[in-house]
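User: Let's play a game. I give you a shape written as tokens, and you guess the letters that built it. Ready? Here's round one.
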């Protein structure tokens, strides 16, 4: 229930948004060019161009006065507006020559897939964003569009430069990004010249197909999307996800405060071994690392737990692990049900050794020198502090997931066995009905877990629940579309079986 103060804050926010819709958006919110020197910019427009590097600002348009900053915060405005020196991309010689294969990316960025003469594939991704594209067409003409545009200032424009060395130290696959600028009217871009020219980019390896099978991934069979991986995983008995590797990648997300780890933020390397397929996670798109949002009055209100909890600011402490898990809930619940607290402890302790003080210092030094001089010490201190507390964050991460684990079968036939061992422990085992091979097994502790959901899919599954106890977990059975058999011989004193079979959406909504 909201308090009067909460309702007042919400009312102020709604009034502010209403006022925004009454004004007109700025016609030229974004700077014409990231290049800071008009003379250099004029020379860059000439052909041929002999300039091989330029001074740019990633987002000079995010500079704001003291009143605006009071309400909406400083965020990472200094990083966006500080001039930095970057090379001009030579498409003819870089990586053996780069050519555009396709234009992609989300609605907010331009992401060009570049084929290279060295046989690899690269991503050319704009540093700046255009979030107003998500607004309805009419809203893009109001002051609300300017407010939405300004939210990009909460992102750190050069975060991927720092994240890459941290990930590599922890053996989490990651591309190595470079900052590059493409000059105006770049003829080598052909029909994409107008779209791609005169922008600041991150250029990095792209792990999207077999061309990305390099380094530790070189023994892989292919690289696929999350959608295809999940389809394979839940269709066949012999397809598995590397839960340990995914757990480690997720702890890295916590370390860097990356709150935006939805399904589209991953690709998966496919490994074939002895008739089994194993999917290894490859994180991508580190735009939300070191996210900073709550240092203005209104943005602080908007980021409260009762408002938009997911807008969690990166700082030296782990104050709200749940906030960093909101956008990743779909994947986390489908992958991590079998990972124990002891495994998380071991992974966290290993990462604390791998990501040493020296690794952190070298990673932060990847920032452009002018920016490192401004904020390098603070970022190093924040990362060291979070690294030192990573084992506690891992335990909290585990506790959130352990409350209501989801155990999903496949479209094949399975046997789900639930044994109420005693008042505190319940064992769940999933077997293939065809050959009896165990695909899942874990014992759950009542002090951590409130309920367990077993989800059959299209196979003719069997659900067996046994054991008589005084206290026990709630077991929720979602039988799926096959001809299923449910045998519940369990007993929980005072609650009968404490088993719920979901036969309709109505039943599910009552839980």
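Assistant: Ready! My guess for every position:
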């Amino acid at each position: 229930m909201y308090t009067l103060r909460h309702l007042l804050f919400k009312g102020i926010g709604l009034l502010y948004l209403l006022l925004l819709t009454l004004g007109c958006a700025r016609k030229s919110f974004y700077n014409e060019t990231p290049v800071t020197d008009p003379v250099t910019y004029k020379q860059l427009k000439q052909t041929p161009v002999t300039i091989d590097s330029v001074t740019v600002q990633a987002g000079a348009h995010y500079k704001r006065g003291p009143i605006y900053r009071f309400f909406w915060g400083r965020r990472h405005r200094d990083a966006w507006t500080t001039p930095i020196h970057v090379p001009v991309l030579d498409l003819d010689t870089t990586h053996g020559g780069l050519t555009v294969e396709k234009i992609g990316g989300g609605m907010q960025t331009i992401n060009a897939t570049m084929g290279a003469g060295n046989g690899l594939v690269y991503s050319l991704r704009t540093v700046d964003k255009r979030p107003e594209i998500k607004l309805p067409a009419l809203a893009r003409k109001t002051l609300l569009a300017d407010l939405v545009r300004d939210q990009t200032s909460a992102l750190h424009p050069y975060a991927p430069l720092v994240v890459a060395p941290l990930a590599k130290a922890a053996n989490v696959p990651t591309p190595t990004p470079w900052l590059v600028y493409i000059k105006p009217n770049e003829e080598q871009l052909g029909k994409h010249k107008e779209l791609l020219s005169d922008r600041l980019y991150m250029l990095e390896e792209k792990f999207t197909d077999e061309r990305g099978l390099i380094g530790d991934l070189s023994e892989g069979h292919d690289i696929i999307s999350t959608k295809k991986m999940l389809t394979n995983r839940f269709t066949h008995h012999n397809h598995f996800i590397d839960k340990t590797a995914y757990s480690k990648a997720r702890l890295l997300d916590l370390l860097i405060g990356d709150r935006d780890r939805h399904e589209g933020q991953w690709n998966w390397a496919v490994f074939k071994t002895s008739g089994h397929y194993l999917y290894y996670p490859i994180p991508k798109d580190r735009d939300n690392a070191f996210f900073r949002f709550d240092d203005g009055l209104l943005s602080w209100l908007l980021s409260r737990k009762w408002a938009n909890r997911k807008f969690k600011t990166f700082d030296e402490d782990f104050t709200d692990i749940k906030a960093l898990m909101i956008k990743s809930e779909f994947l986390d619940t489908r992958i991590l049900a079998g990972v124990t607290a002891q495994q998380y402890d071991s992974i966290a302790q290993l990462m604390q050794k791998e990501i040493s003080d020296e690794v952190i210092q070298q990673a932060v030094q990847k920032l452009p020198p002018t920016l490192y001089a401004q904020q390098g010490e603070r970022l190093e201190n924040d990362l060291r502090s979070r690294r030192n507390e990573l084992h506690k964050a891992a335990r909290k991460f585990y506790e959130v997931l352990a409350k209501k684990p989801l155990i999903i079968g496949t479209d094949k036939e399975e046997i789900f066995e639930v044994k109420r061992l005693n008042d505190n422990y319940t064992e769940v085992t999933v077997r293939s009905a065809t050959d009896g091979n165990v695909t899942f097994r874990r014992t759950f502790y009542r002090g951590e877990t409130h309920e367990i959901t077993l989800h059959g899919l299209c196979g003719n599954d069997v659900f067996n629940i046994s054991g008589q106890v005084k206290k026990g977990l709630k077991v929720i059975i979602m039988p799926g579309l096959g001809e299923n058999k449910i045998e519940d011989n369990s007993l929980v004193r005072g609650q009968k079986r404490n088993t719920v079979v979901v036969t309709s959406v109505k039943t599910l909504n009552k839980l």
